[in-house]
């Protein structure tokens, strides 16, 4: 392997749970307004199945589709209380930033050790995230100098890439690093992410089991599953 391509939330930083909580609050508010009898968003079931690892609007669409709900797309600047795909996404974004502003962003110690070891071994390193907050989170976590390339939700929007589970973002990162997919390893905690690694025919796909779903990670394409990437050292 010549390069490591890391997802951010749940792999390098402990922000996946913050994303999940923000999604739950945003969806539960919408569901109650849409149908007071609707079952709430289930973090353990709905988050990994429909939202985790995907671009924001894709997550909104996929979860709503699971409930038989279809909404207009809306516009980027829709109000957080708008019953549109963009509105719900903006509601989640506002909730997320409130929590991050209050609590900050913490990298996993094992991830920092792995990034440092990869750098020292001469391996190329990229962060590949569906989040449009990726750059701010990387900076807040203090790991920006350990990563050479960033492909994120902003890249998806600006370059017209397909988000995970399509392999586009990982392939774009490998290309920017100048490394063939077969010589790069993907590190992911989301089912959509390991699917993307498999679809892109990467040399190795490491599943990081933060949500007690080791079997599902393997079924979706992980070559190996660990609890933390520091375990690989």
**What percentage of residues falls in helices of 4 or more residues?**
40-55%
Low-confidence stretches: none
Mean pLDDT: 94
Tally of extended strands?
A: 6
Which CATH architecture of the largest domain would you pick? 3-Layer(aba) Sandwich
CATH domain class of the largest domain:
Alpha Beta
Key descriptive features of the protein:
single chain; 233 residues; alpha/beta; Rossmann fold; 2 domains; six-stranded parallel sheet; 6 strands; 11% strand
What does this structure look like?
InterPro entries: B-phosphoglucomutase_hydrolase, Beta-PGM-like, HAD-like_sf, HAD-SF_hydro_IA, HAD_sf, PGP-like_dom2. It catalyses: beta-D-glucose 1-phosphate = beta-D-glucose 6-phosphate. This is Beta-phosphoglucomutase. Its cofactor is Mg(2+). Pfam families: Hydrolase (PF00702). The chain is of the alpha/beta class and 233 residues long. The protein folds into 2 domains: 3-14 and 105-232, Rossmann fold (3-Layer(aba) Sandwich); 16-103, no CATH class. The protein has helices spanning 16-34, 46-51, 56-66, 85-103, 109-120, 134-141, 153-159, 168-177, 191-199, 214-220; strands at 3-6, 124-128, 149-151, 184-188, 204-208, 224-226. It has a 6-stranded parallel β-sheet, sandwiched between helices. α1 (16-34) crosses α4 and α9 packs parallel to α10. The longest helix has 19 residues, at 16-34. It is globular and about 55 Å long. The model has no long low-confidence stretch (mean pLDDT 94).
């Amino acid at each position: 392997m010549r390069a490591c391509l890391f997802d951010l939330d749940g792999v390098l930083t402990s922000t996946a749970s913050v994303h999940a909580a923000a999604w739950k609050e945003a969806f539960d508010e919408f569901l109650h307004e849409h149908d007071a009898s609707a079952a709430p968003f289930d973090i353990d079931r709905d988050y990994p199945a429909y939202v985790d690892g995907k671009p924001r609007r894709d997550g909104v669409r996929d979860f709503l589709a699971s409930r038989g709900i279809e909404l207009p797309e809306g516009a980027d600047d829709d109000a957080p209380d708008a019953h549109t795909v963009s509105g719900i996404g903006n509601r989640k974004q506002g909730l997320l930033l409130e929590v991050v502003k209050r609590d900050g962003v913490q990298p996993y110690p094992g991830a920092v050790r792995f990034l440092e070891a990869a750098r020292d071994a001469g391996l190329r390193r990229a962060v590949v995230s569906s989040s449009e907050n990726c750059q701010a989170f990387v900076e807040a976590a203090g790991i920006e100098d350990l990563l050479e390339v960033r492909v994120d939700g902003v890249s998806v929007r600006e370059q017209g890439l397909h988000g995970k589970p399509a392999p586009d973002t990982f392939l774009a990162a490998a290309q920017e690093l100048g490394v063939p997919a077969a010589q790069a390893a993907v590190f992911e905690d989301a089912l959509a992410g390991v699917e993307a690694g498999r679809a892109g025919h990467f040399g190795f796909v490491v599943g990081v089991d933060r949500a007690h779903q080791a079997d599902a990670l393997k079924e979706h394409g992980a070559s190996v599953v660990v609890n933390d990437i520091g375990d690989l050292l």
